[in-house]
Specification:
Layout: E1 18-22, H1 27-38, E2 42-47, H2 52-60, E3 64-69, H3 75-86, E4 94-97, H4 113-134, E5 143-148, H5 152-155, H6 162-182, E6 187-194, H7 220-230, E7 242-245
Parallel strand pairs: 1-2, 1-4, 2-3, 4-5, 5-6, 6-7
Helix pairs in contact: 1-7, 3-4, 4-6
């Protein structure tokens, strides 16, 4: 495993803690799961796809991980998955929501309603259901929530369609709402707004690395390290922030 920025014995160590990552079968989510496991957390990875590859990578490196196939748009299934993740220790210490889809990169006039519904269902409802499912397992002892947004939600998009942009802006707003409403329960909430990341989501979408100040896309693990820090005890007094991780593409 190449993960391991957060050392189990350091201030961001998560030995004995319970973490859940959605959208963890590949891309940013898979790398977040690896980082949290390398920091010592027992990680539950959730995705609509099988998570065998990331679970195997974690366990072969000596970490602890289990996977569940869960559609984040299914509120009941998400709640059940969170309860199962919490059951061994009686709690969830950290949640990172990475599940998202891109949709068609079209104009508002060309946007098909089924595509709009799909993007909002996964990116907005899925994030809400995931957070809502985890909160009852955090409130007794506090916890940390990290939601993956996008630079598109801050600057109005790069090449993405209006529904993707709107969905990520909603995620950023949700982060701040959670931070305000759950502070009394010792829960902090933050977001990460990546720029263009080299994952299957952007394949064929017209993005060019030479359009970025660093001359390249982000690697998934570069975003995962930011999310993992926010999910760790080292970020216990950071709340309500949406952290830019875009390589200088946009400075907001």
């Amino acid at each position: 495993m190449t993960a391991g920025m957060l050392h189990p014995d350091g201030p961001a160590g998560m030995t004995g803690q319970v973490a859940v990552v959605t959208g963890a079968a590949r891309g940013i989510g898979a790398e977040v799961a690896k980082e949290l496991a390398a920091a010592g957390a027992a990680v539950t990875v959730l995705d609509a796809r099988p998570c065998d590859e990331v679970v195997t990578a974690i366990t072969e490196a000596g970490g602890s991980a289990v996977g569940q196939i869960v559609d984040v748009t299914d509120r009941g299934a998400v709640a059940a998955a969170m309860s199962a993740a919490a059951a061994p220790a009686g709690r969830i210490d950290a949640l990172v929501t990475c599940a998202a889809i891109y949709g068609d990169a079209v104009s508002l006039e060309e946007l098909a309603e089924p595509d709009l519904d799909s993007v909002l269902d996964v990116n907005v409802k899925g994030t809400m259901w995931s957070v809502g499912g985890a909160l009852p397992h955090m409130r007794d002892q506090g916890g940390r929530i990290v939601c993956i947004g996008s630079v598109a939600g801050k600057i109005g998009g790069v090449l993405a369609g209006p529904h993707y942009v709107a969905s990520k802006g909603a995620v950023h707003a949700l982060v701040r709402w959670i931070a305000k409403t759950e502070a009394a329960n010792g829960i902090v909430a933050n977001g990460v707004a990546p720029g263009v990341v080299d994952t299957p989501m952007i394949t064929g979408k017209g993005y060019r690395p030479d359009g970025h100040p660093l001359g390249r896309f982000a690697a998934p693990e570069e975003i995962a390290r930011v999310a993992a820090f926010l999910a760790s005890p080292a970020a216990s007094y950071v709340s309500g922030e949406v952290v830019d991780a875009n390589g200088g593409l946009a400075m907001t």
